[in-house]
Design a protein that fits this description.
223 residues; Rossmann fold; seven-stranded mixed beta sheet; 5 helices
């Protein structure tokens, strides 16, 4: 079972775009994105173990080993083309930590629904904003539980990036408010600010065409 969908990147694309899904989800979260992207940007949808066609594999419960393995996956297929990392919620956490160690440095880090500054004031359990409620039983439960452990184990070290960052947020996200994303300004090589869209924490489900259109424009600016 592979980490990336499709298994091989389009040889004719100019840029590789890696997409990291939120907790409990899988690569199918981005199933409609290839049709939204221009032909010169190859869609690389990341599939973590423990879900969908990889449901029989043991999911990761620690952040650092997961990021290390993702780094190996990306390094193995690096062919000199610019790389862009995009993640939603827990996927944004993974993309951020991967962007810190990836060599060469990604051309751009794009995040949605997550900010390293943490949750909005008043949330009782830091880290849980990256996670939907854990279901009881079924194939998704082990992956959701493992993802929860990964996110709750994260401790912010204020690490700074060598690449630019763009951020997207739902205007009604009560977990990571648009204001929380301002912290990226102190961590990125450049940060033009957060772009907001209608919706809550999972705004991406209904706003994918608009987000992709903006993301493509940002990619064009740096590659």
């Amino acid at each position: 079972m592979g980490w990336l969908h499709p298994s091989d990147p389009d040889p004719d694309a100019r840029v590789l775009l890696y997409l990291f899904h939120h907790s409990g989800a899988g690569a199918t979260m981005y199933g409609g994105w290839p049709e939204l992207l221009p032909s010169d940007i190859a869609c690389r949808r990341v599939q973590l173990p423990g879900r969908q066609e990889r449901h029989a594999e043991q999911p990761y419960t620690e952040l650092d080993p997961l990021v290390t393995e993702l780094g190996r996956v990306l390094a193995a297929e690096h062919d000199g083309r610019p790389r862009v990392l995009f993640g939603h919620s827990m996927g944004a956490l993974l993309a951020y930590r991967l962007a810190l160690s990836a060599r060469p440095v990604p051309a751009l880090l794009a995040v949605a629904g997550w900010a390293p500054a943490g949750l909005s004031p008043g949330d009782a359990q830091p880290g849980t904003a990256a996670l939907p409620p854990i279901p009881q039983g079924g194939l998704i439960a082990p992956a959701m539980t493992a993802d929860t452990t990964v996110v709750l184990g994260y401790r912010d070290d204020h690490a700074k990036l060598a690449c630019p960052v763009v951020a997207y947020a739902g205007r009604d996200d009560q977990l990571f408010t648009p204001a929380a994303h301002r912290d990226w300004g102190s961590r990125a090589a450049s940060f033009p600010g957060v772009t907001t869209f209608p919706g809550d924490h999972f705004f991406l489900a209904g706003q994918a065409p608009a987000v992709v259109a903006d993301l493509v424009r940002r990619i064009r600016e740096v590659t």
